[in-house]
Amino acid sequence: MRTPDRISHPLLWVPTGYFTMAMGYIMLTSVTAIMFKNIGMDNTRAAAYSSLLIFAYTAKPLFAPFVEMYRTKKFFVLLMQVLIALGFAGAGLAMSLPNWMVVMLSLFVLMSFIGATQDIASDGVYVTSLDTRTQALYCGVQSLSWNVGPIVASGFLVYLSGRLHTDVFHHDPKVFGPDWMDAWRVIFFIVAGLVLVMAAWHARVMPEGARAENTPTNVRGAAVILLDSFVTFFQKRDVWKMIAFAFLFRFSIGMLEKIGPFFMVDSAAKGGLGLSNESLGIIYGTWGLIAVLAGSLLGGMFVAKRGLKRTLFILCCAVNIPNLTFLAMAMTLPTDSWTIAAGVIVEKFFYGFGSVGYMIYLMQQLAPGKYTTTHYAFGTGLMGLCMMVTGSLSGMLQEYLGYVSYFVAVMIATIPSFLATWFAPFHHDDGMGAGSAKPGPAANDANASHRAA
């Protein structure tokens, strides 16, 4: 392990590294949905296109071993950040072309794989440059920094898009259409500039990242390791029950993730709340994310005190039951911003509170074994697959049902989550004596914490 020196002190590169990762991820997989909606795309396509961009992040475990084979982890971090910056700048420029949508979508798909590679390399720098004690010491900084990314991307930048559209370009904020491209072009240039600045900073302060043990030296070696990790994963006891849990725990949340913001900005004539981008950025992207962080903190304390086995079903209830707030808002269509904010805060707080249980279950029960980190990545990949599938279908289903009936369907979709949680097996200790084995090394996995919220 490399001992950090003054220039590579973790506080110089951990916060900025994970902030940059998160901002790129949220811009591609969440903020693009709002942009698509603003420029006049229907809910079906807006939800489907933005959801498909999750695929690369879901498939990270399939190409992670190959990233380990070449150069240093820092090299990949810097290269990917420069390419991401060029990609966002290219997306802004593409909006001036006749076939801009095809070019922009192609860039977004390519950027999603680049962003996933950046995640692999950044996590690798963190894990291999810091010893176990230092990893634990900066785990909270890592998690907090990652969650600042969504606040900036889906909060401040969405807010800024609305201000630019209205105050700078003097367009009607209530009309969705091509006029919104002026504002979003500026947003993409801003993101490109931020990421480029981060790359320059990381070139100066980020450590190189040591090579992990048993790193493959060629494609054949990487393929053998990947195949063995799959074989041993499916040899785990009750693996299909754990797979069901990993895929279904957030099933209803996947249906809500894209449609929630659409519901906020759609007009009352379409059954929505008619919020501006500015209001959406403040309520959904700022207060909602702060509520997630607060819920995650308290949820972690709750699990630590009582143990996961005793609390997992309670946490599932916390994730799913508060979805009723969206059904209530769809039925009443409140116009008061504080009422809307309260509904979002309640749903997001309990989502953060309950989601902690999901991540801890993957670390304690699914991941332990020969390939702890890889098997944990398989679990989060299943979560990503769920969010991609449900998000892709959610727009079409919402347009068919309307908002009220759709949110009823979201509540029905909680049933698989409850069943998968009820039958989720526990074969390892949860820290409270539940199980026969000691906690697996995944309990200390530094890759996990920044995904918890």
The CATH architecture of the largest domain is: Up-down Bundle
- The average pLDDT is 85
The CATH homologous superfamily of the largest domain is termed MFS general substrate transporter like domains
Rg over C-alpha atoms, rounded to the nearest angstrom: 21 Å
Structural summary, described in words:
- Pfam families: MFS_1.
- Its main location: membrane.
- Keywords: Membrane, Transmembrane, Transmembrane helix, Transport.
- With about 450 residues, this protein is mainly α.
- It folds into 2 domains: about 240 residues, MFS general substrate transporter like domains (Growth Hormone, Chain: A, Up-down Bundle); about 220 residues, Growth Hormone, Chain: A.
- The chain contains 20 helices and no strands.
- Helix 12 crosses helix 18.
- The chain starts with 9 loop residues before the first helix and ends in a 31-residue tail after the last helix.
List the helices and strands and how they pair.
Elements: H1 10-38, H2 43-52, H3 55-58, H4 60-67, H5 73-94, H6 100-129, H7 132-137, H8 139-168, H9 181-205, H10 219-234, H11 239-248, H12 251-257, H13 259-265, H14 277-306, H15 308-320, H16 324-332, H17 337-366, H18 372-401, H19 403-412, H20 414-422
